[in-house]
Amino acid sequence: MSDVMIRVPAEVRDQLAAVAEARGTSLRALMQDIAAQTLTPEQIRERADRTRALLAERFGHHVSDEESAEMRRKMREAAAAHRAASAESEPNP
Question: Is residue 75 scored above 80 in pLDDT?
């Protein structure tokens, strides 16, 4: 296994270290978990294609490009709202 150095701001490093410590794992293991859980654009497309095929096959619903775009928009909005709510609930130092 080869090592890679990734330069991040100290705040990011400290946050990742705190997350790793809270999970009882190493920073290396945390980064491996994050990488394993993060999908590439190709993997996202493949999952979307499988989901469209499943909806068509099992439910007879053919998802249009417009429906997909609208759902992506709603998911981005929901994620942004969640991040904003999380930021507001965090104590200020």
Answer: yes
